[in-house]
Design brief:
Two copies of one chain form a homodimer. Chain A is an alpha+beta fold. Chain A has two helices and six strands.
Chain lengths: ~120, ~120
Amino acid sequence: MKSLGRHVIVELWGCQNIDSLQAVEEAIRDAVAATNATLRDLQVFPWEPYNGVSGIAILSESHLSIHTWPELGYAAVDVFTCGEHTDPEAAIPVLRERFRPQRMEVMQVSRGMIVD
Amino acid sequence: MKSLGRHVIVELWGCQNIDSLQAVEEAIRDAVAATNATLRDLQVFPWEPYNGVSGIAILSESHLSIHTWPELGYAAVDVFTCGEHTDPEAAIPVLRERFRPQRMEVMQVSRGMIVD
C-alpha cells in the first residue's frame, strides 16, 4: 500500500506567541519552507472573541493550518502534504521553536491509501 | 473532558464531479452552510498536473478543505469546526450528494481536549 498524502495533526499546549498575527504568519511561512512544499496562498485572521489567530496556507501539495486559543495556551496545527519531495513532519521543529510549547501531541494520518 | 473543536476527516473514493472547480466550490459552500459555520474566505485552485482541485474555506470556526485526485476518483476532505453551534458531521450528506462516492471512510478527531 502507499498513500497519496501524509497528514500530520499536532496539538500544542502551553504555547507562547500564539496571540500574534505576525508570529503565526512567520511560523506558517517557516513551517511550509521546512516541509519543502510550495506556498500558493496564505491567509491569517484574528479569531474573535479570544485574541486567537487562524492562519491557513494553501500549498501546491495540500495545506497547513494553525488555529490558536491564547487564553488556553493551545494551538491546533494540521500539516497535510503530498508528493515524495515533501515532509510534513519537518514542520514540527519549527512549531516547537516558534511557540515553545510545554507539551505536544502528534498524530499522523495516511490519506488516500491505495494498493501499490 | 471536553474538546475545543471537532475535526472530521473524510476519505471519498469513486467520486464524480471532482475535476470541476465550480463543483468543488459549490460543494464547499453547501457543506459550510450545513455545518452552520461562518465563511470568512474561500479559495479554489486547479491542482496540477492531474486536473485535481484544491479548495479551502477559512471559517470563523476553523476550516473546511477538499483536495481531489480525479484520475483516482479520490477526494480528501477535512471539516474542522469549533463551537456548540456547529456540527462538522453535517457536511457528510452534502459531500455524498455532490460527489456520489462509491465508498466513504470517516474519522473524527477531538481537538483540544481539556478537563471540564
